[in-house]
UniProtKB/TrEMBL annotation:
<keyword id="KW-0456">Lyase</keyword>
<dbReference type="InterPro" id="IPR015886">
    <property type="entry name" value="H2TH_FPG"/>
</dbReference>
<keyword id="KW-0227">DNA damage</keyword>
<feature type="domain" description="FPG-type">
    <location>
        <begin position="248"/>
        <end position="282"/>
    </location>
</feature>
<dbReference type="InterPro" id="IPR035937">
    <property type="entry name" value="FPG_N"/>
</dbReference>
<feature type="domain" description="Formamidopyrimidine-DNA glycosylase catalytic">
    <location>
        <begin position="2"/>
        <end position="100"/>
    </location>
</feature>
<dbReference type="InterPro" id="IPR010663">
    <property type="entry name" value="Znf_FPG/IleRS"/>
</dbReference>
<dbReference type="InterPro" id="IPR010979">
    <property type="entry name" value="Ribosomal_uS13-like_H2TH"/>
</dbReference>
<dbReference type="InterPro" id="IPR015887">
    <property type="entry name" value="DNA_glyclase_Znf_dom_DNA_BS"/>
</dbReference>
<keyword id="KW-0378">Hydrolase</keyword>
<dbReference type="InterPro" id="IPR012319">
    <property type="entry name" value="FPG_cat"/>
</dbReference>
<keyword id="KW-0511">Multifunctional enzyme</keyword>
<keyword id="KW-0234">DNA repair</keyword>
<keyword id="KW-0479">Metal-binding</keyword>
<dbReference type="Pfam" id="PF01149">
    <property type="entry name" value="Fapy_DNA_glyco"/>
</dbReference>
<keyword id="KW-0238">DNA-binding</keyword>
<protein>
    <submittedName>
        <fullName>Fpg/Nei family DNA glycosylase</fullName>
    </submittedName>
</protein>
């Protein structure tokens, strides 16, 4: 799933190529991906792209009419979605589909611009979670309106982290992934942040000392800023590989930890897994690989 660094890079990549260009076609292929009906997707046609913004893991393309009226194409790529840029976008008609079981990338939305370029939103896998909205104000979308603090904003301070940790006694990995608390971090970067900070993913939030709060804050900011710097300027087609190549523990089960050389370990759940280094993060204790494991505190 694309997270804050990749979404930020996509926003920059698309802004550079689309800003100032008019939309000449916006065609929906996957009906289930479209979550709104007013304004319709066709309202994008004839408007000029004025910029791109990131809201957590959401991408926001603003498009204005000649009279200044502005609407937003908003989308969340979820687990299987992606943006595929095309210097020459196909002009063949897009055939809407109601569903399907294809595991390969399937077209959900195609946007074509006045210079012939454009982009496709696609989604792979059988579980379709890509969400596309066309709205007048991003705050109309509940998931955007209720986003927590952006970890790269000035509001993300050690004091803000301390308040989030104290608000509810929960596992720190769950807090990092909670979009209503901190916007933009998912499964991969929460693993990376906790490895840098040297905390168990199951450490309880109210157990953090002042020094540990600062360590978690610093690890979060440093990890995400480094990932944004790595992703920035890369074409959309290269971002997934760049993300995988930059991981320290996430997705590296069985490989050596880059800090201590111990084998990276995994805890599997029903639909996801987490990775960690026992030497660096849990004092050498191996976490039981089952949902009802006894959690480290």
């Amino acid at each position: 799933m694309p997270e804050l660094p990749e979404v930020q890079a996509l926003a920059e990549f698309l802004a550079e190529r689309t800003t100032g260009h008019a939309v000449v076609a916006a065609d929906v292929a996957a009906i289930a991906a479209l979550k709104t009906f007013d304004p319709p997707v066709t309202a994008l046609v004839g408007r000029t792209v004025t910029g791109w913004t990131r809201h957590g893991k959401w991408l926001d393309m603003s498009a204005a009419a000649g009279d200044g009226d502005r609407i937003h194409l908003m989308f969340h790529l979820s687990r299987g979605g992606w943006v595929r840029w095309k210097e020459t976008a196909p002009t063949t008609p897009v055939r809407p589909r109601m569903g399907g079981s294809s595991r390969g990338p399937a077209l959900a939305l195609r946007v074509r611009l006045d210079d012939g370029s454009g982009f496709d939103l696609t989604e792979a896998g059988t579980r379709k979670r890509l969400a596309v909205h066309v709205v007048r104000d991003p705050q109309e979308i509940e998931q955007v309106r209720t986003l927590g603090v952006d970890p790269l904003s000035d509001a993300f301070t050690p004091a803000a982290v301390a308040a989030l940790l104290e608000a509810k006694n929960q596992q720190v990995k769950g807090l990092l992934r909670d979009q209503r608390a901190i916007a933009g971090i998912g499964n991969a970067y929460s693993d990376e942040i906790l490895h840098v900070a040297r905390f168990s993913p199951f450490k309880l939030s109210r157990s953090f000392t002042d020094d540990e709060v600062r360590a978690l804050h610093d690890a979060t900011v440093t990890t995400l800023r480094d990932a944004v710097a790595t992703s920035s300027g890369k074409p959309a087609a290269e971002l997934k590989d760049a993300k995988r190549a930059g991981m320290r523990v996430h997705g590296r089960t069985g490989l050596p930890c880059p800090v201590c050389g111990d084998a990276v370990r995994e805890v599997s759940f029903a639909d996801r897994s987490l990775q960690y280094c026992a030497t660096c993060q849990t004092g050498g204790q191996v976490l039981a690989d089952r949902r009802m494991s006894r959690l480290l505190k």
